[in-house]
Write a structure and sequence with these properties.
This protein is of the alpha/beta class. It is built from 13 helices and eight strands.
């Protein structure tokens, strides 16, 4: 283009003067040069802005995946003997290999099986407790304290599971006392939250989770949140075989993360691991774990089968 118009500059008419036509073309050429330069500068600016924006978005998206996945099992009132517990724990530990995902794994087991299970897994995963009494000592027949659990090497403890809320009448205030005591003892807590079927059908999942999160986390400092994980368990899906679709679960997890941001800040929300619980199975785990705000699973029934739970530990995304 430049060469074509450059030729016109030197062209002359028979009298040795540039023709008016040529002059106009030259002027057009000068205008076009300015337009081209302006266009190039504008394009460069847009590219630079787009690159910066894309970089910010990529950084934000990447941060969602910096949370280490957490796969956990809750044995509840199972199994019925020490031998069964040891065999089950050993089988589950055997499913963790060098090719397994880089995830944290824990089993929450009945108190009487904790030390046997610890020996059986050989340090390949954590053995946690299914609950704790917020009192440190005293006349509380049948209770287990946080110092007792800490003394035998327990790190993770459940608090707020729906069965404890419904069957044993544990309130949000009591659950908060458990959380504070666990943190105070230097251990980590998995706070369980979730709505009933009636609440879900009335579109109250977010409201219920907000209340349970705010009350459960009350008094826990931001610097201690590294020892907290959240398990969202829709009550209507626990032990029923029903599973919230990955899209429903993702939506609630995203809501929970926004609630944590309001309680603390965005950094705390992005760092918090939020697990999904509620009839998680080998068939459902992969799609659940593909969701950006689902950081793991709290598994009930399937954790009583070493093959099934092993498949969940070795989820594929």
């Amino acid at each position: 283009l430049f060469h074509h118009y450059g030729t016109l500059i030197t062209s002359c008419d028979d009298d040795g003067h540039k023709s008016l036509s040529t002059y106009r073309k030259v002027q057009s050429f000068e205008t076009m040069k300015l337009q081209i330069v302006a266009s190039l500068l504008s394009t460069a600016a847009l590219v630079d802005a787009f690159s910066t924006s894309a970089s910010i978005r990529a950084s934000s998206t990447t941060s969602l995946y910096e949370r280490k996945p957490f796969i956990s099992g809750n044995w509840k009132l199972n199994p019925q003997s020490k031998d069964e517990a040891v065999a089950l724990a050993s089988g589950i530990a055997g499913s963790i290999t060098e090719s397994s995902p880089d995830a944290e794994v824990a089993l929450f087991v009945p108190y009487v099986f904790i030390e046997s299970a610890q020996s059986a897994v050989g340090g390949k995963l954590s053995i946690g407790a299914e609950g704790v009494c917020p009192q440190g000592n005293g006349a509380y027949t049948g209770a287990i304290s946080a110092p007792m659990l800490n003394s035998i090497g327990v790190n993770w403890v459940l608090a707020g599971h729906s069965e404890r809320r419904e069957i044993f009448g544990e309130t949000d205030e009591y659950i908060n006392e458990q959380c504070l005591k666990i943190i105070d003892e230097g251990m980590s807590v998995m706070l369980c939250i979730g709505e009933s079927l009636a609440e879900f059908e009335q579109d109250l999942a977010g409201s219920v989770c907000a209340v349970q999160l705010k009350k459960g986390l009350k008094g826990i400092k931001k610097e201690d949140l590294g020892r907290v994980a959240i398990a969202y368990e829709p009550v209507w899906a626990i032990g029923t075989g029903k599973v919230a679709t990955p899209e429903i679960a993702q939506s609630v997890h995203e809501t929970c993360r926004s609630i944590i941001a309001k309680i603390y800040d965005d950094e705390a929300a992005q760092d918090m691991r939020i697990l999904y619980g509620g009839s998680v199975s080998p068939e459902s785990v992969d799609d659940l774990m593909k969701q950006p705000d689902i950081d793991g699973a709290l598994v009930g029934g399937a954790s009583l089968d070493s093959d099934k739970f092993g498949r969940i530990i070795n989820f594929q995304v």
